[in-house]
Protein 1
Amino acid sequence: LDRLNSLIHEYNSGSRDIDSFFEELVELAKELSEEEARAIKENLSEEELAIFDLLDKENLNPDEEKQVKKVAHELLDKLKTEKFVLDWKRKEETRADVKITIQDILYDNLPAPIYSEQDCEDRTQKVYFHIYDNYVDSKINVYV
C-alpha cells in the first residue's frame, strides 16, 4: 500500500511519466502475486503470512515452523473474535488488552528454547505495531 501510494504521488506530482508508472504498477502486481502464491504454499492466509513473517526465525526445523504457523493462525483468530471491539484503538485499556493477548500467546506458544524471552518481547512489539497499523477491527483491515 505504501509503495502504491508513493507511485501515485510521484505520478501526480509529475516526477514519473505514464510509461514508467505503468511498468512499476505491473512489477508491483507481480510481487503481490508472488506473495499470494507464497501464502498458498505456506498454507496460510495473507494476513497469517504477515504475522508468520514477523514471528519467523532462521533455522527452524519443520515442526517448529509448523508451530509458529499455528501461533500466527491462533493469534489472529483470538484477536478477531475476542479483542477487536469497536474503536479498540481509542481506549488505552483495549489497546493494552490487545498487546497483552499478543504477548501471552507468543510467550505460551512459540517453541522454546528457540524463542528466548527477548525474542518473544521483540516479536510482541512488532506484531502489536503491525496489528495497530493494519486493523480497525475484525472486519475492517488492509487485507479485505
Note: The two ends are 13 Å apart (CA to CA).
Protein 2
Amino acid sequence: MHFNEYADDIHLFKPCSRTERSIASPLEQAVAALRSDPNSEGFVEKYPLPTDTAERRRWLQAALTVRPPGNLPAELVASVNQILQSELAEKPVTEASELPRLPGSFIMAESISIWEGDITTLKIDAITNAANTRLLGCFQPFHQCIDNAINCAAGPQLREDCNRIMVLQGQDEQTGTAKITRAYNLPSRFVLHTVGPIVSQGNPTQHQARQLASCYVSCLSLAAKAGVRSVALCGISTGVFGYPVRQAAEIALDAVVNWLAANPKALDHVVFNTFGEHATAVFLDAVHNRGNT
C-alpha cells in the first residue's frame, strides 16, 4: 500500500503539537483516564494502582503497553504527551547533523554515520522501528526491544496510527516492506516501521538475506517519497528475530550504499544506529572491509 493511501487518515504531514495546555498533575490525570477507560479495564482490575509516584509512572507505562488501539481518550493523550515531553526535556538529545561521517573511502561514505546510542533521543527527520507483522508495537510491558522503546517514548498515538494503517491495508505487513507515521513525542519527525525476517538457529537463507536488504531499501525509498532528508536505521532483525549481527551489518551497508549511489540526491544523511559495543565494532569492521575492496 502506497503511503499516499493512508497519509491523510493518519494526518501524516500535520505537525505534532508540542505546546498543549499545561496540566497541573499530568500523571494523576493519565491514571484517572486509564482507570475509566474501557480498553484498559482488564489491566486496571488485575494490577492495583501503586501509591509511590515512581511506581505509578511504571504502572502507567505498563497499562499503555498492553492497551489495545481504539477509542483513545483525549484527556489521556494530553496528559501522557505532557509527561513524555517533560521526560524528553531531561534527556540528552543528540543532533544527527553533528555526527561524524564515515572515514571510509568508498562511494557515499560522506553521507553515512555510525552512532551508538538511544534512537529515541536522536533528533533527525526519521528513525526506523523494527516492527512485527501486526505493526502495533510490543504488548509486553518493559520488554527490551526497540519496538517497545519507540512506542513508549512516542506515546499511544503511534499505535493508533499504525492500527489505522492496518485497518486500511486489511492484512498483516509483509516482511521487507515499510510504512511511515508521525513520531509524536520523539525528537524525530517520523517513524519508519519495517518488518525484518525471523531467523531460526542463526542460519539465514538467501531469501531472508534479500528480505533484510529489502527492509533497508523500502525504508529509504519511502523516506525519500515522503520528503524526508535524513534517516536513522536500526539493526533490523538482529534482536529477538535472530539475524546474525555480522551478516546483517554487511547486508545493511551494501543495501544503503547501493541505494544512495543510485539515488544521489534523494537523502542527505543516513545514520546506522548500533546497539552495544559489539554491534558498533561489527559495523565499523564492515565499513573497513568495504573500503578495502
Note: The first helix runs from residue 26 to 35.
Protein 3
Amino acid sequence: LASTAYAGDFFPNPEEEFHSKLADKNDNNNLTGFKNDKVDELIAEYNICFDQKKRIELLKEIDGIYNVVHPESFSIARNYIRMMWWDKFGYPEWMFERHRGDQWGLLKYWWIDPEKEANLEKAMAAGEKLPLAPLDMKYWPEYLKSQ
C-alpha cells in the first residue's frame, strides 16, 4: 500500500503516469512500471483531442484499464483555499488566480487599502470589531456558470 500525491498541470496529463515509454526509466511518475499498448494509443488520441468531453472519456478509459492491472483508490482534490488576513487589503473580485488556484496570487493582485487600514487601526485601538466580511468567496464557479 502506498499513498502518493501529485501536484501538476491544470489539465491532466496521463502520459506522465501511464505511458509505456516511462515504465523502465527511473525518476518519473510511472511509479508502477505500467505498460499497455491500448493505453498508449488512448494517450496518443488524448494528446491531439480538443473536445473536452471526449478527453474526459479517454481519461476514464485509461483509468479503467490501469485499475484492472494496478487497483488504486483515488482521493478528492480540495479545490479551495483557507486563508485569514487583517482586513486592511483590497483585492479583485476573484481574490485568487483561477489557473493555479493558490494563495500566491495575492502577492500580485492584492494591495493595502489606506481606508481599510485606518478603519482596522481605529477598531483595534478602541477594542472594537469590524463588520464580518463574507466567509465563502466562490467567484470562479459562479463565473463559469455565466459563461
Note: The radius of gyration is 22 Å.
Protein 4
Amino acid sequence: MTTRIKSGLLAGTLLATLAPLLTPATAHADDAADKAADAGMLKPIIVTADAMMSPLVVETDPKNPRQPVPPNDGAGYLKAIPGFSVIRKGGIDGDPVFRGQSGSRLNVLIDGSPMLGGCGMRMDPPTAYVFPESFDKITVLKGPQSVIHGGSAPGATVLIDRTTERFTSAGARATVSGLVGSWHRNDQLVDVAAGDSWGYVRAIGSRSHSGDYEDGDGRDVHSRYDRKSGTLIAGWTPDDKTTVEVSGDFSEAEAAYADRMMDGSKFDRQSYRLNVSRTDIAPFLTELSLNAYHDYVDHVMDRFTLRSWTGGMMAALSNPDRTSSGLRTRAKLAFGEQTSLVIGADYNHDRHRDRALSAAEYNAGVDYQDKARVKDMLIKTTGLFAEATRELGADSRLVGGYRLNIVK
C-alpha cells in the first residue's frame, strides 16, 4: 500500500492480486507485469478523504467542490465526513448521526454559539438552519474530548464558522458559485467582502431549490424544497491583535416530505452575534474573547400549505418557536512553550413555546397566527470550564479538562 498527502487530501492506492505472480528468474520484468495483469490483477482503487489535522479532529472547507453533491443543508454536508450518517426526512432538514449518536449527544455551534431547533420531534434540527457554502470552515471534534464548547456531547462537537480574512489594504474579494442538477435542482451563492486595514464589511446570500423527483416508475415523489439565506457582517480591526465583529443571519425555507402526513412549511431563523477578541495581551495571556448571541427560530409543520388537505382527526398544524440568548468569555494562558490553559464561563437562556391548529379549527377557518403561544420550557444554564494542554513531544500531548454546568 502506498499513501500520499497532497492539497489536504489523503489518497490511498490498494492493489490486490488474485493469482500468484511468481515467474522464472530469467523472465523480463515487463513480461511478468503483463502476465500478472492477464492473470487477474484488480485495477487500482483510489480512496479520497479529508486529512485529519490532529487526532480526532477533522477540518473541511464547505466551499470546496464535493462528490457526491450533498443536499443544501448541514446534515447532508456532514454525511460526507467519515463516521456521519443522516436520518433523512426529505430533500433537506435531515438529522445528523455520528457513530450511532444523535440529538443532544451532538453539539452544533454556529460561529461559536449553540444552535437549537424548535420542533420536539426534531423536524428542524440545528443543521436545518445551516447553509454550508455560506460558511468558511466546518470542524468536527470526535467524542467528548473537549469541555470548552459545552457539556453533554459524548458523540461529537461540530463547529460551523465564518472566518473573514483581514484586509491589509483597501480592496475587495468575492466568491460566486452556482449548481444545476436533475429535477430542477439549482443552487446559487454570492459572498462579497470589502475593507481596509481598519475593518471590513461582508454580505452573503444563498438560494437553493429542488422540485419533486421521479421514482423508477416515473411517478412524482413529494419532495420539493426552497431555501434562502442572507448574512451581513461588519468588523473593526484597529490593530493586528484586535477584532470586533457584529453579524446578522436571516433565513427561510420550506420542504415537502413524502414519508409523513405533514410538511415543513416554515423554517425561519434570525440570529445576531457580537464577537470581540484580542491576542498577545501579555506574555502569559495569549488570547481573550467575548461572544454574545441571540437566536430566534420559528417553525411550522402543517398538512395543507404544500399539499391538498386530506382531512382526518390529526392536528392540522404545529407551530413551535424558540429563543436562545447567551454569552461566553474565554481566556487562554501560556505557561512556557509547552503548557497552555483555557479558562472561561458561559451562560444560555433558552425559551420554547408552542401553538397548534386542530382539524376542527382549520375547517372552521381559524388562523393559527391569531392563537396565543404557550410557553412550555425555560432553561437557564451557567457553565464554568478549564482545559489544560501539555505538549509531550512532536507527536504526543496530554489534555485534561473540567466543566461545571448549573441548570435551572
Note: The first strand starts at residue 2 and ends at 6.
